[in-house]
Amino acid sequence: MFVMGAYVGIYYNVVVAWSFYYVYSSFTVMPSVPWSSCDNEWNTVECADGITRNITDGKQTSPSQEFF
């Protein structure tokens, strides 16, 4: 019971830590969060951010879908 409680506690703390990290990242002095535009090196040609439309064969993904 102690081991399972420790695993659940670690898992919970990791989820909370990632949440705090992303909230902090969205409020820092960065001009925008990296998943808000298609101007990054990991984006594909199907990326459409609402400002620029890259229509290749009808498939479009958002920048946040490609980031995560």
TrEMBL record:
Assign the protein's first listed, main location to one coarse class: membrane
Cystine residue pairs:
C38-C47
Query: What UniProt keywords apply to this chain's record, in alphabetical order?
Result: Disulfide bond, Membrane, Symport, Transmembrane, Transmembrane helix, Transport
Where is the chain membrane-spanning? 6-24
Matching entries from InterPro entries are given as: Na/ntran_symport, SNS_sf
An example GO CC term for this entry is:
plasma membrane
Membrane topology field: Multi-pass membrane protein
Subcellular location(s): the record lists: Membrane
User: Which SUPFAM superfamilies does UniProt cross-reference here?
Assistant: SNF-like (SSF161070)
- Similarity-based family: Belongs to the sodium:neurotransmitter symporter (SNF) (TC 2.A.22) family.
The protein, known as: Uncharacterized protein
